[in-house]
Amino acid sequence: MPGGNIEAYNSVKVYLESIAAKDKNGHACCAYIGTEGSGHFVKMVHNGIEYVEMQLLAEVYALLTSKGHNPSEIANILEAWKSSTNSYLLGITIDILRKKEGEEWLIHKIMDKAGNKGTGNWTTISTAELGVPSTMIASALFARYASFYKKERLTASNNFGENKMIENELSDDDILKSYHFARIINHYQGFKLISDASNTYNWQLNLSELARVWTNGCIIKSDLMEDLVSVFKSTNNLLSDAGIVESLNTLKPFIKKVVAQSVINEYPVPCLIDSISFLNNFSKANSSANIIQAQRDYFGAHTYQRINDESGKFYHTNWKQQSN
Question: Which of 37, 64, 214, 310 has the smallest C-beta neighbourhood within 10 Å, fewest atoms?
Fold first, then answer.
């Protein structure tokens, strides 16, 4: 994902492309990204998307465990998912779940404290600075942060109780379809952040070419990424693509069911929850933000616009009722 001076890139292009992984057509998964720090930026967002993809698989593992499946059984379930939702991270998760030390699964011996190198943090800062709602990246980051408070979590577990077995409330297919849904929203949010950054900094990034570069040789390579290469040739907004919209509407009942059962049975699935919460919030023509703007005007005279005034004029109101 090199960016910066195009002449500098051209001078090393032959070397970079010769050692890069190749896409399904044999082309190098390496390309000039754009001017300035655009290459660094998209690599950072790549890692933010990666944080969410990893967290979603952790949540899937937790839910399948709650149904009584052991790691080897979960690995077999995920193996069957490859036909509809294959990815590099899915593949390595299968390998992890099958690994044993003697007669015990190694995953059961690993401390549940997830570290990070900072890229999820940087992505969350950037999405806040640009005003882009990449909520799932923040949720995945904070899930890692929360995991590190092991002693406090043990105390909280004693105070508030452990989660319950979900057993028959959810099917494996319910969880698969919820995973599908959340991954689409994750990719929408990640590419939306890149698109808005491109507009802000005048980088003129090509999302289709970027998706192509990410189809091989990187941690978030997947069948979904392959599909996005074509989708981004006609739009930069995944939520305006007819195929994506149809998929999300088809999958929505499953994510609602899985999230509801997870909350009822006290299973922490922050990124699954955030995926449907985001779409519910983002897809409403009329939100509750008018209350917030009225509150801001009340205590800080921050003004507001009126829906019946197309001029864009800003208004201020003295909200305190006058006593008679």
Answer: 310
pTM (2 d.p.): 0.94
Is 43 assigned a catalytic role? yes
Catalytic residue among 13, 22, 43, 257: 43
| pLDDT above 70: residue 323 | no
> For the chain, which domains are there?
37-203+227-284 (1.10.1040.10)
pLDDT 10s digits, 240-278? 999 999 999 999 999 999 999 999 999 999 999 999 999
**Is residue 7 annotated as a catalytic residue, yes or no?**
no
In one-letter notation, the amino acid at residue 263 is V
Mean pLDDT score, 56-61: 98
